[in-house]
Design goal:
about 475 residues; Endonuclease, Chain A; 3 domains; two-stranded parallel ribbon
């Protein structure tokens, strides 16, 4: 290699390193910045290319501006909910959390809701199918992953039949999330052959001028029928082994928790769908938001919390931290991918250290190698602080995402407790109060405990050095996964 070329490459390498030190930490967590800097310092040219592809977690400026405009319209459009805005008289810290949610996500806390938790995988598909078959005006369905298979066939057929009889049926699915599972082309062929209106969310189609950070995801799961009934939770529209023969061979199935909801909360969930539909189609669904749901459907107070790169405030993380710091007696957390940032880790371990009973339900065997090993790297700190960790029996994947605080609050939705869900994924969570919702969710948590075994600190300390090494290496990738 000519001497001048060696000198040029050496200078370029130096320039990349110097510029990276001053640019990459800007408006990023120190841990995230350090991970990127390590990559660039070890492999400068490849590292900078990967950073340019994956380093920006924000949506396009057009979509961010659109989100701001939508938030303003949401505030005006949900004025009809003023009559049912909450008169909740619980602890002040709960009211404070609700105020935080409304300031960040623009959606009010509302009374008069009915919530039914559905832990059975086929049961939730059946419940959604029955609701669609009764639809008269519209069905809005938004899921991270969709598939046409033997489990979802009845639901997709119900959606097709509803569209045929004149019901407005709109379907959204995440482009890359759905593309990765078997049967994608079959799903597209089915959607194209009927009258369902459908769009890919966050499409990555460079030939159509649609480009963004490749690993941004719309991870939400929402279905709204006629503005009267809604479903949300952790479950994707796919059979429980994700159409993967390897999973079926070992008996691996996903364990979920969904909720069927009635009351004013349905309107606010539909706002989230309408926002995403507007982002992908430029079509406004504001007329749907004027439908008046039953303001006395039940005795649960609830509030929808949207989050994701369309917001600059990490709405879900702020809510989770606020509630955990406010806990006085008990915290039960279920998260399939538990890779907390420093703030959440401190909130949870501090709660345990000040005497709150804290328990964490996670899968014994994860389905994603790096995430699972990064998660394991936090177990020692959690156990030493007094957090009780329950490992849900393999080969099942405990994919449900929810937590309870004291006897006051239950939170359910699509958000994991990991840095991807806080910064990169578009998520939706529902904070629920009153009625017997906490007791009902605790009953679900009890079933997890019955099928899990507790991880003890003395046993964890005996794991092989090789396993510790892999866990620690995976932890370095946590902030950029």
């Amino acid at each position: 290699m000519p001497g001048w070329l060696v000198l040029l490459l050496t200078l370029l390498d130096l320039v990349i390193r110097v510029v990276a030190v001053g640019v990459i930490p800007g408006n990023r967590r120190p841990t995230t910045a350090m991970a990127w800097l390590l990559g660039i310092f070890f492999i400068p040219f490849l590292g900078i290319i990967l950073f340019l592809l994956f380093g920006n977690f924000k949506l396009s400026s057009r979509r961010r501006e659109q989100q701001e405009l939508v938030n303003e319209r949401v505030r005006a459009g949900t004025a009809s909910l003023a009559a049912v805005e909450s008169t909740y008289e619980g602890p002040e810290w709960v009211k404070s959390a609700a105020e935080l949610n409304q300031r960040l996500g623009s959606l009010p806390m509302v009374d008069g809701n009915k919530v039914e938790l559905i832990p059975g995988y086929p049961n939730s598909i059946q419940a959604m199918t029955e609701a669609v078959r009764k639809a008269e005006h519209f069905v809005n369905a938004e899921f991270y992953i969709m598939s046409s298979d033997h489990v979802t066939d009845d639901l997709l057929t119900a959606l097709e039949e509803a569209a045929e009889r004149g019901v407005e049926v709109r379907v959204l699915f995440d482009h890359i999330g759905t593309l990765r599972v078997r049967g994608y082309r079959k799903l597209l062929a089915r959607l194209r052959s009927g009258k369902i209106q459908w769009k890919r969310m966050l499409p990555l189609l460079p030939t159509h001028g649609q480009w963004r950070r490749p690993d941004l995801r719309n991870h939400r799961k929402i279905m709204v029928v006629d503005g009267l009934v809604a479903f949300t939770g952790s479950q994707n529209l796919i059979e429980p082994s994700y159409n993967n023969p390897k999973h079926r061979k070992v008996g691996r199935e996903w364990v979920e928790l969904m909720a069927r909801m009635e009351g004013p909360i349905v309107t606010t969930l539909n706002v989230v769908f309408a926002t995403d539909w507007l982002s992908e189609t430029d079509e406004s669904l504001e007329h749907q938001l004027r439908i008046e749901a039953d303001a006395h459907a039940g005795d649960v107070t609830a509030q929808v919390v949207p989050s994701g790169p369309g917001f600059s405030t990490e709405n879900n993380l702020r809510l989770f931290n606020t509630l955990i710091y406010s806990a006085q007696h008990r915290i039960s957390i279920c998260s399939p991918y538990f890779v907390p940032d420093d703030s959440l880790l401190y909130a949870i371990t501090t709660a345990a250290q000040r005497g709150v009973d804290v328990e964490l339900f996670v899968s014994e065997q994860g389905d994603q190698f790096l995430v699972h090993h990064a998660q394991r790297s936090y177990y020692k700190a959690l156990l030493e602080a007094g957090v009780r960790i329950y490992l849900y029996k393999a080969p099942f994947v405990l994919h449900a995402k929810h937590f309870t605080i004291d006897d006051e609050v239950a939170v359910l939705g699509s958000s994991n407790m990991d840095m991807r869900s806080f910064s990169l994924n578009m998520e939706v969570s529902v904070m629920m109060l009153g009625g017997d919702i906490v007791g009902t969710m605790r009953a679900v948590e009890n079933t997890y405990r019955d099928i899990s075994h507790e991880l003890l600190l003395e046993d964890w300390a005996k794991r092989p050095l090789g396993a510790r090494y892999v866990d620690n290496v995976a932890r370095l990738t946590a902030t950029v996964q």
